[in-house]
Amino acid sequence: MLSLMYARMLASQNIVIILCGNKKDLDADREVTFLEASRFAQENELMFLETSALTGENVEEAFVQCARKILNKIESGELDPERMGSGIQYGDAALRQLRSPRRAQAPNAQECGC
């Protein structure tokens, strides 16, 4: 719980956190029930998925859900990748130009490269 508090204190206020319950394939050896973990995630405003590294179940889905949540926050304006300290940025300069509404103007002749 302390680590979660520190993550929220030190990161962007729009941080996306997912709680992954690993070893889903070992149901018999479970120490935390699905309900307990799900309730903890809900009480702490976390996304929650049970995963299995052994079978690969929900491993990719965890990343996909995080990416979707981040994209939704960008599209709603909660997150601005152009703002310093937002905790996120576009990886490719061409994508920054395509996605940024502030740069939607036509390029001038010097930038064109025609």
From TrEMBL:
InterPro entries linked to this entry: P-loop_NTPase, Rab_GTPases_membrane_traffic, Small_GTPase
Keyword annotations: GTP-binding, Nucleotide-binding
Superkingdom of the organism of origin: Eukaryota
Full protein name: RAB4A, member RAS onco family
One Pfam family in the UniProt entry: Ras
Keyword presence, GTP-binding: yes
Gene3D superfamilies per record: P-loop containing nucleotide triphosphate hydrolases
Gene designation per UniProt: RAB4A
Annotated source species: Propithecus coquereli
Molecular function, one GO term: GTP binding
